[in-house]
Amino acid sequence: MNARKLCDTARELVADGKGLLAMDESNPTCNKRFARHGIPQTAMARRAYREMIVTTGDLGSCISGAILYDETIRQCLEDGTPFAQAIIDAGMVPGIKVDSGKTDLAGHPGEQITEGLDGLRDRLAEYGRMGARFAKWRAAIPVTEDLPSRGCIEANAQKLAGYAALCQEAGLVPVVEPEVLMDGAHTLERCAEVTQEVLRTVFAHLSLQRVMLEGMILKSNMVLPGLTCPQQEGVDEVADATLRCLLRVVPAAVPGIAFLSGGQTGVLASARLNAMNVRFKGRLPWALSFSFARAIQQPAMEIWGGSDTHVMPAQEALLHRARCNRAARRGEYGAKLESVST
After folding, report:
1. Could you tell me whether strands 102-104 and 112-114 are parallel, antiparallel, or unpaired per DSSP bridges?
2. What is the pLDDT of residues 194-241, one digit of tens each?
3. What is the pLDDT of residues 176-186, one digit of tens each?
4. Number of separate helices (H) and strands (E) present in the chain
5. FRET partner for 249 with CA separation of 20 to 30 A, picked from 35, 40, 146, 157?
6. 158 burial class (0-12, 13-18, 19+ CB within 10 angstroms)?
7. pLDDT band with cut points at 50, 70 and 90 for residue 340
8. How many CA atoms lie within 13 A of 228 on its CB side?
């Protein structure tokens, strides 16, 4: 393990007001989104869509790193350039999703465990040779009055820590993503309670596995009420609840927290990130960044629709959302920025 290299990469991923672009949707997930817009569900269409993303001019001024899926990192642009190299050429760091998805957790109805540790050491070495410098693993934690169970939290935390240790051994920065899901009618307070318990457990397991905190990134959910909760707190209330929670459980050694969007609209995700950076400016031990997927990509996908003639306006929409989130990182986002797409 090259500790200095890991620390340098982790800092690079959260530096200069930039964030991560998660373009690592699995093939089934990507196909579902394509189907809603009448886009062919083929490897060729997925390649073309992701080429549209990585060739967006000036994207590297807003995005520090892009997370790829296994299919994509093995593909090339139309001109023969490997995707990882195209990301490097655009001034970004290539990353790779390495978990193999969720499966039901035995003995725990309604809960799931993320798989993918089998053979991971060899896969990480291969991805490193292909140009990846960081990796991502997601655990999904549901919230109800009775869930998550302690068993679900512990099992997923253990897997996240094992993954992170293997990443650092291979020289890749682990992005550790324990996502407390937005689905349901739970309150803001219940989300805060669960998020705090989950993160406390994750960091306990990271310590047991001797993961170097300075060489990792936490990808966290914001503390939010469930989507069907009658009480939907405002942007400032969400910012305060999120940072109160994180300050209690995330060690200062972690260089940055990159929030996931988790189904939020692009505008709302940007507004909430902006509020955190405004209200807590200069008071936090770690950088507050973003690692958004749909909250950056969705307008571009709708405009592109699988048509080569729509690439340019789709790229403009993608860059606009990326610039909005760069502004949110700096506490400079607002409605005026949304009205100007350049």
Report:
1. antiparallel
2. 999 999 999 999 999 999 999 999 999 999 999 999 999 999 999 999
3. 999 999 999 99
4. 13, 10
5. 146
6. middle
7. low
8. 5
Please indicate whether residue 237 is annotated as part of the active site.
Answer: no
Structural domain 3-331, CATH architecture: Alpha-Beta Barrel (3.20)
C-alpha dist (Å) from residue 111 to 29, 76, 139, 141, 156: 19, 37, 11, 7, 10
Q: How far apart are CA 199 and CA 195, in angstroms?
A: 6
Contact 84, 130 (CB under 8 A): yes
Which residues are registered as beta bridge partners of 66? 21, 94
Residue with tokens 């690692």: 291
Task: Write the burial class of residue 333 (CB in 10 Å: 0-12 exposed, 13-18 middle, 19+ buried).
Answer: buried
Omega of the bond prior to 313 within 30 degrees of 0, cis? no
Q: Report d(CA 23, CA 18) in Å as an integer.
A: 16
Query: For 142-265, where are the alpha helices, taking DSSP H only?
Result: 150-170, 188-208, 235-249
Contacts 24+ apart (CB under 8 A), 230-236: 230/185, 231/187, 231/188, 233/188, 235/268, 235/271, 235/272, 235/275, 236/275, 236/279
Q: What is the sign, positive or negative, of the torsion defined by CA atoms of 276, 278, 279, 285?
A: positive
Asked if residue 20 has pLDDT above 70, the reply is yes
DSSP 261: -
Report the candidate in 102, 103, 109, 190 with the shortest Cα–Cα distance to residue 143.
190
Q: Which of 107, 206, 183, 179 is nearest to 150 (CA)?
A: 107
d(CA 5, CA 253) in angstroms, rounded, equals 16
Which residue type does 243 have?
Answer: L
Task: Please give the Cα distance from 120 to 308 (Å, whole number).
Answer: 37
Residue holding tokens 């990796």? 135
Q: Which of 159, 219, 281, 338 is catalytic?
A: 219
pLDDT digits (tens, 9 = 90+) for 293-338: 999 999 999 999 999 999 999 999 999 999 999 999 999 999 889 9
List the catalytic residue out of 12, 25, 177, 179.
Answer: 177
Is 179 marked active-site? Answer: no
